Amino acid sequence: MGTQISFAATGDSFITRTLPEKDEKFNSIKNILMSAHVKFTNLETTVHKNSGYPAAVSGGTWAKAAPEVLKVLKDYGFDILSLANNHMLDYSIGGLLSTLKNVRDYNFNSCGAGENLAEACAPNYIEVSNHRVAFIAATSTFEEYNKAGEQRNDENGRPGINPLQCKTTQIITEKDLDKLKRIAEGTRINEEYNLNVREGFTVPPNDDVYLFGGQRFQVGSKRGKVTDINQKDMNRIRDKILEAERRSDYVVVSIHAHQMKQEKNKPAEFIEKFARKCIDTGAHAVIGHGPHVLRGIEIYKKRPIFYSLGNFIYQSETVKNQPHDFYKKYGLGHNDNIADALDAMNDNYNRGLCINPLVFESVVPYWTMKDGKLDSLKLYPIKLGFEEPIYKMGWPRLSKDINILKRIQKLSSCYNTELKIKNNIGIVKLN
Predict the structure, then answer these.
(1) Is residue 160 part of a domain?
(2) pLDDT at position 20
(3) Rounded to an integer, what distance in angstroms lies between the CA atom of residue 209 and that of residue 202?
(4) Is residue 408 part of a domain?
(5) How far apart are CA 271 and CA 288, in angstroms?
(6) How many of the other CB atoms lie within 10 Å of CB of 64?
(7) 257 burial type by CB count under 10 A (0-12 exposed, 13-18 middle, 19+ buried)
(8) Strand 311-314 vs strand 5-14: parallel, antiparallel, or unpaired?
């Protein structure tokens, strides 16, 4: 390798509008992104014109935008998109396939979703500045039907996302377990599961795990919750990192994960474990997103892990329409419109993500690497127009609010990451 290469990344781009004009605020962020050799974002919406049918359930709001929004992302300078997230199957397989086509038509590289599991988990490569960089993307937040399926010689695979499943176990006391068993006997909540085990349709977990209503419980000394990685998924992603390491100078892994540890701004244990295993295997950076707020940064083996970069573009309130399932959920009917539905979901904006100012604050990291190691890392704070009317919210702007940097400074301290603030920019101290 020898020479330096630069990266810029953002979190979720939930984009539903085209940019009215490219003003100085737009150009200031674009200039930062364009100064990097490699520019990444997570595309948090399907992009098509009614090419797919709404799924029975969604990642929250059914996310759909016109393909023209991809031109905005192109204008920002992005060259690689992650499609591995909980919205990519909001409009079923048709919506996913149309999104894949439109992303290709706009000359983006993408990763994390495909026509079968092999395509969804495959590395995608970009070549810049005499370097070849591989990207692999996965998500741990998804509906069961979102998972891509494996191809066989006698049957098609299934289009979908590259999944990273996690195993959650509730830790309880012996007395708690006795109560659960008595409740199960009285309510017969497990009778269908027990029948499936007897008839061979379900494989029971380890002997020391008790299932109650589909949830895992295990006796321990202290009540709590433990999360762990699905080893089969970890092995598949590990194999792809090893493959990419042999065919590129740098490997970057993207992970979309909502799961938290007590608070939304702290990742669940399995996410930390996954990110470090990726670095151990050969990845040079891990880019996290999903909870719509910032999480901490860890420098692990001289390589960066961004546990969540929050939002870059967040325009959920300007989706043009929603399926009837959305209206029905809030007691609305065919005479109600999209404004009525969004008002109902947000209780006239007394609840929801759009009243949380932290959802509209983030950072854009710019880092350089040389000889496989982190050489420098700067953080540029951004705001997304929380003070604007809901129909204008969501566009990123550079900010001089050092409280954003102080927040990520605090969130990163548990990873022993030191962050200095100078001229409204965060500078990570490297050992």
Answers:
(1) no
(2) 82
(3) 15
(4) yes
(5) 9
(6) 27
(7) buried
(8) parallel
Helices (H), 35-79: 69-76
How does DSSP assign 346-406, residue by residue? TTTTTSSGGG-GGGGEEEEEEEEEETTEEEEEEEEEEE--TTS-TTTTT--EE---HHHHH
Could you count the other beta carbons within 10 Å of the beta carbon of residue 107?
9
Query: Can you list the residues of the chain whose pLDDT is less than 70?
Result: 1-2
Question: Is 310 found in the same domain as 204?
Answer: no
Let me know whether 289 and 352 are in one domain. Answer: yes
Sort 151 into a burial class: Cβ within 10 Å, 0-12 / 13-18 / 19+.
Answer: middle
Give the H/E segment covering residue 225: strand 224-229
Provide the pLDDT for residue 136.
98
Instruction: Determine which helix (DSSP H) or strand (DSSP E) holds 41, and give its type and residue range.
Output: strand 38-43
Same structural domain, 260 and 338: yes
- The structure tokens 């001289």 sit at 302
The per-residue pLDDT for 21 is: 83
Q: What is the pLDDT of residues 215-239, one digit of tens each?
A: 999 999 899 999 999 999 999 999 9
Q: Which two tokens stand for residue 225?
A: 């919750």
Separation CA 115–CA 113 (nearest Å): 7
Structural domains counted in the chain: 2
Domain shared by 316 and 356, yes or no: yes
Domain residue limits at 173: 166-227
**Pick from 412, 419, 169: which is nearest to 270 by CA?**
169
Other beta carbons less than 10 A from residue 170's beta carbon? 17
Domain holding 373: CATH number?
3.60.21
Residue 385 falls within a domain, yes or no?
Answer: yes
- Residue carrying structure tokens 């990763």: 111
At residue 402's C-alpha, the angle toward residues 401 and 407, to 5°, is 115
**pLDDT tens digit sequence for 360-383:** 999 999 999 999 999 999 999 999
Rg of the chain on CA atoms, in Å:
22
CA atoms within 13 A on the CB side of 284: 23
Distance (Å, rounded) from C-alpha 64 to C-alpha 68? 12
Residue 122 lies in a domain: yes
